[in-house]
Every structure is written in structure tokens, then in C-alpha cells.
Amino acid sequence: MASEISLFIVISCITLSSCSTNAQLSPFFYSRTCPNLPLIVTNTMRQAISKEPRMGASILRLFFHDCFVNGCDASVLLDDTSTFTGEKNAFPNSNSIRGFEVIDTIKSNVEVVCNGTVSCADILALAARAAVFLLGDPSWSVPLGRRDARTASQSAANTNLPPPTANLSTLISMFAAQGLNARDMTALSGAHTIGQARCTTFRTHIYNETNINPSFAPLRQAQCPGPASGAGDENIAPLDIVTPNRFDRGYFLGLVTRRGLLHSDQELLNGGSQDALVRLYSINYVAFANDFANAMVKMGNINPLTGSNGEIRNNCRVVN
Ligand code: HEM
Ligand SMILES: *[C@@H]1O[C@H](CO)[C@@H](O)[C@H](O)[C@H]1NC(C)=O
Ligand SMILES: *[C@@H]1O[C@H](CO)[C@@H](O)[C@H](O)[C@H]1NC(C)=O
Ligand SMILES: *[C@@H]1O[C@H](CO)[C@@H](O)[C@H](O)[C@H]1NC(C)=O
């Protein structure tokens, strides 16, 4: 595994232009101070996923919800207290984001060998990469050296994270606001090849919308009762109908047959600018995997705290 990882680092730095786009972050940031870091993260993620396959998806999503809210600074990991309002109870996160115990476990495993050295923001970036690698096969070199925020913003979490009701132009503009183009947006949406969503996030799509496969809608309605019942909000269904625990092109195949679970998913193939790319990804896994890896590096470079800004948190849930 160690040689696999270093091989990927070499390859990615040659092929991914984004490898050197952020002068502040470097894949070799902890090479001297914590050389086993990637291995510790991957091994802990492997244990977590073997205990619960969905955990890979949950960790990948945490990284997205960190980076889109004032940059990849581990702000999403901070707990609310009587004197501190974090992001966990923002509307897109509340009752939804998960995996904090796994990040805690990785952090404490890392602290044993590299005490006080590695930021929670970098742990999240490496854990997201490990999740994808363990559930499929893409990997990429992760630029490192992020530091942890001393603040969080519930209002930015409410504003910056796209809702499942968003149309294509809203999705494109919300990603553009983070420096990500439409191709990045569509590739990153391929994260929905793993994981689950709650009925409350897709009810309108399966009951009231027309751009949906007529056999898929009743299938999902069976587990997600209509609004009149007042029940079932928390029932979950897979975002990728066939292989929700495999990082593959299944999500895009689903979109092509109008089996996207969220309204926002099906917007990517609904007669608009992303149709051709969705069709490409649905038949060409390598094209998807390469674009996804590239876009993950770009997303990971959003507004990091570096140098003497921020801190290296002792506990990912609280500022020092
Ligand atoms: C394009 C705009 C996006 C929208 C509107 C969106 C929305 C959602 C929603 C509503 C859920 C279900 C949450 C719940 O029911 O509690 C979800 C799940 C998920 N999202 Fe997204 N998402 C988007 C982009 C992304 C991106 C860029 C990533 C990562 C790179 C991502 C990764 C995930 C994963 C892995 C899950 C499943 C999590 C789990 O099973 O715990 N999403 N998303
Ligand atoms: C790491 O260092 C801190 C502060 O010096 C100390 O409180 C903590 O117990 C150490 N943790 C480990 C795992 O050695
Ligand atoms: C997309 O949604 C936004 C915000 O709800 C709305 O202003 C806009 O008109 C919509 N665009 C299209 C093409 O439907
Ligand atoms: C579907 O639309 C009808 C009429 O606009 C509305 O009453 C109902 O609540 C909607 N159902 C869902 C699931 O959004």
C-alpha cells in the first residue's frame, strides 16, 4: 500500500496540472514530520468502511461541506457549545452529515505518532481520498499544509452549500463562486455514486416531477411516503441505484436512464449544457475518474489557512 500511494503521488504530479497550482500546499508537507500519515489515514478508513460501508460516502461529503464554507479549514468539525455556534446545525448539515467519530479516531491514531503536527483539515482531505480509493480505485496526490480554523460560520454553510432543489444554472453558479467550473461541478457530483439520501431531500422529485423514469418513481415512493402521510422523512435510499458502495460510473448510468434521486442530480442530464459530459462519464469510467481526481484537488485548494494562520487543533471538535 505504501508503494502504491507513493506511485500515485509521482504519477499525479506529472499528469495533474493542479498538483502545483497552490504554492502554499504541498503533497510533501509532512514527509519529514509525519511520513506514515497517509498510511495511518488509509488504514483507519479501511477499518471504518469494513464496519460500515456507507462511511466512505459520509467522509467524502464532510470534506465537500468543509471546503465550500470559507475554505478547507476543518470548520465543519467544530461542535456547537453554549458560547460557540458551529456549522453542524446549518440546514444542509443538520441531521445529515456524519462520520465525526471516524475523524476523531484517525486524529487520535495520528497523534500517537505525530503529536501536535497534523491539522484536522489535512486529515479530512486525506480521509476523503482514502474513501474513494477504498471504494473504487481513483487516487490522487493530496496537497497538504492546511491549518485549522478558530471560527466557523453557520450562515455561510446555509448560503454556500447547494440545495437538492437547485437547477442547473444555480449549481453552476454556486460552484463558480468557489472557483470550480461546470465540468468540475459535474465530475464532483459523481460523488453521488456512493452514499444515501433522506426521503425529505428527494420527495418532491419522485412525486411531483416529470423528468424521472416512470418505473423508478414508484420504486422510491414505496420507501418514501408522500407529503400527506407526514411520515418517513428520515428513510434513506441510495443515490446510485445499483452500486451505492462502489465508486464507479453507476451514478451517471442512472442519470442517463432518468434515475437520478435528487432533483439536482437529474438537472445534470435534462437537456442542458452538461448532457454530453454526463453521457461521456456514463460510458467512460476513466474520463470520470480523472476529472474527479482533478476536481477534488481543486476543491481541496479552496482558501486554505497556511503559515501561521489558524492552528493545529488538538481535538478536531474544539478550538485549542
Ligand atoms: C452538486 C451539488 C450537490 C448537491 C445539491 C448535493 C446534495 C446532497 C444531498 C441532499 C444529499 C443527501 C443528504 C441527506 O439526505 O442527509 C447528499 C449526499 C451526499 N453527497 Fe452531495 N450534493 C452535491 C454535491 C456533492 C459533492 C461535490 C460531493 C463530494 C465531492 C458530494 C458528496 C455526497 C455524498 C458522498 C453523499 C452521501 C453521504 C452519506 O451517505 O452519508 N455531494 N448530497
Ligand atoms: C500530545 O501533546 C499534548 C500537549 O503537549 C498532550 O496533552 C497529549 O497528551 C499528547 N498526546 C499524545 C497521544 O501523546
Ligand atoms: C434556477 O433557479 C433560480 C433560483 O431559484 C431561478 O432564479 C432561475 O430562474 C432558475 N433558472 C432556470 C433556468 O430555471
Ligand atoms: C406536489 O405539488 C402539489 C401541488 O402543487 C403540492 O400540493 C404537493 O405538496 C407537492 N408534493 C410534494 C411531494 O412536493
TrEMBL record:
S-S pairs: 34-114, 67-72, 120-316, 199-224
Binding residues for substrate: 162
EC number: 1.11.1.7
GO molecular function terms attached to this record: heme binding; lactoperoxidase activity; metal ion binding
Cellular-component GO terms for this entry: extracellular region
Marked site (Transition state stabilizer) residue numbers: 61
Binding sites annotated in the UniProt record for heme b: 192
Cofactor(s) for this UniProt protein: Ca(2+); heme b
SUPFAM superfamilies, per database record: Heme-dependent peroxidases
Annotated InterPro entries: Haem_peroxidase (IPR002016), Haem_peroxidase_sf (IPR010255), Peroxidase_pln (IPR000823), Peroxidases_AS (IPR019794), Peroxidases_heam-ligand_BS (IPR019793), Secretory_peroxidase (IPR033905)
Superkingdom assignment: Eukaryota
Secretion signal, residue range per the UniProt entry: 1-19
Secreted listed as a keyword: yes
CDD domains from the UniProt entry: secretory_peroxidase
GO biological process: hydrogen peroxide catabolic process; response to oxidative stress
Catalytic activity: 2 a phenolic donor + H2O2 = 2 a phenolic radical donor + 2 H2O
The family this protein is said to belong to: Belongs to the peroxidase family. Ascorbate peroxidase subfamily. Belongs to the peroxidase family. Classical plant (class III) peroxidase subfamily.
PANTHER family: PEROXIDASE, PEROXIDASE 72-RELATED
Protein name: Peroxidase
Species of origin: Beta vulgaris subsp. vulgaris
